[in-house]
Specification:
Elements: E1 7-14, E2 27-34, H1 37-42, E3 49-51, E4 58-67, H2 92-95, H3 104-110, E5 112-113, E6 125-126, H4 129-138, H5 165-174, E7 200-207, E8 223-232, E9 238-248, E10 262-263, E11 273-280, H6 297-300, H7 302-316, E12 320-327, H8 328-341, E13 344-350, E14 363-370, E15 374-383, H9 384-394, H10 402-411, E16 416-424, E17 437-444, H11 452-469, E18 477-482, H12 490-497, H13 505-508, E19 527-529, H14 530-535, E20 543-544, E21 549-550, E22 553-558, E23 562-567, H15 573-579, E24 595-601
GO molecular function: 3'-5'-RNA exonuclease activity
InterPro entries: CCR4/nocturin_mRNA_transcr, Endo/exonu/phosph_ase_sf, Endo/exonuclease/phosphatase
Pfam family, one: Exo_endo_phos
Amino acid sequence: MRKDHGFSWNLSLRVDRPLEGCVLTPHSYMYAKKLDDADITKGISPFAFLSPTSPPEHSFKFTFYKSKKISETCYSRSCPRQGTFSPLEWSRYRIKGGINARNRDALDAVGIICADGRRDCYNQRFCNEDCFVKGWRESKVVPPGTYVKVKHMKEVEVKTNGTSKDNKDKDAASTSSPDSPSTKPVKAPQHLATVDTEEWVKIAETTGEDPTFYPDATCVGHRILLLAESVSVEDGSVLMSRTVKTELCLASPPPPPKRQLVMAKNIGGSGHRFRVVTYNMLAEIYATAQMYPYCDFWALSWDYRFQNLKLELEQTDGDVVCLQEVQSDYFTSHIQPFMSSQGYEGIYKQKTRDAMGMAGKVDGCAMFWRKSKLQCVENYSVSFNELAQRQAASMGLNPRSEEAAQFLNRLKKDNVAQLAVLEFTNVTRTTAGTHNRVCVVNTHFYSNKDHPDIKLWQAWQLAAQVEEFAVSRNLPVLLCGDLNSTPDSAVYDLLGSQSVHPGHPDIAEAKDRVLPDARSITHGINLASAYHTVTGSEPTFTNYTGGFKGTLDYIWYTSENLRPLSTAPIVEEDKILKYGMALPNTQFSSDHILMLADMQLGGQR
């Protein structure tokens, strides 16, 4: 008959690297495991607690401490970490240590300690192998007779295939059979953690209802110790507790480098002037280590990236801001409140697919305008899925037929667009009698590089919507967004020249014929690219990742009633590579480059 050994209670605790101004959220839960003979034989985790019952209902209490001393940085004088806690200098890419990639995080927390008492770097910490080698070369030999001998701990060989003969009797005496009457009661391991107040000072307490903590400037350079306690709801007693120490807290990121505007020729006129910004922010659901393995894990976190994204938006100071890959939950919790605090109003349209996992985990487009300068008088959103349904119906396809299913499956990719008519509120003597309204379009086309025909179809359909909505009323049009199409694409040709050559590869290589004859793919909008007009060409790239470098983002405008005054040049490649192998990195927190143009109502001069 099997003996009932009860349960082992376990408390799991994890917390990410602390960063100034970024939320630090404990991830903690308590669980029970029903014990069997095998568990008793091989031993219980030292963090577990043995009980005849499973844990009662409980809540969590969290206490944050910081180290009393600022943590040591690398001893190597050539290490970028010397004298700074900037995240730009603490990036793994910047350090370029020689340690195996999967061990880098552990090494960053522990480091390498010099154990040679004959060198002046004895007992000093180095952040990685490269720094240790450089530091060793920089170090000096201590004169003989003055160095301190290094005390080495005796190494113990751990055998994995049995025990030594000398220990067999001892092991047998201490581990009798679980079912034997002589089995001694198993003592519960230590399950209540303690904190050494000589080394740590308390800085905050939170609960499970709101466990978050925001490290401030006083935490920079210090390590954080988190104490988690599971508390019985019934009597308030502490059931279990556990501590975890973090890596040292890094400072908030500095502002991005300023981008000097490139001015257009023959600027002037009396129309309203305004600045438009378009930016694919990189949604959290796509910012994964699998997608961007070259970026530090902590630099991929939304809270860190949002600090950088805010700085960019503040610095560019746009009057109209078009954003793509705006995650639904973060639009509500972060982006909309921030933009509101900066004096903007806005609208949001999420993609027409289900969330990825939890509610809110779906991205979309957001458009904002400066309240002191503009007001929205009309807006509506475009669902390309709905446009596909309409086209299938207009083609007479039976909704239940396989042909209709294939057609819709090819075109329905959940992408959306926003259209808004914005009106200038600050009419002056110089702007009186001119246009005081502009239609702004914000969109994000399908991303799959192997489906250019779908992007062309989306561009064609969007142009038709804009033509009906705005051009028919002689409204100036700005079309901004991530079109996921390079300047040699059919999408670019269609928008810039109102038609597509029938022999274009994007049409010729289309596998499923969802497009009509190329001669039918036209529109009547006189569009020009702001960047091409000002600089004579499109940027070399607006998207820069480990697997792709090219231009995907644009600011298009109707040339008969709008003109660009200036554009902000794209960040130079050497500045990107200064902080990482590609985008995103510790300085630039999206895989796209923010684009900016100063515009004026009125046609080309």
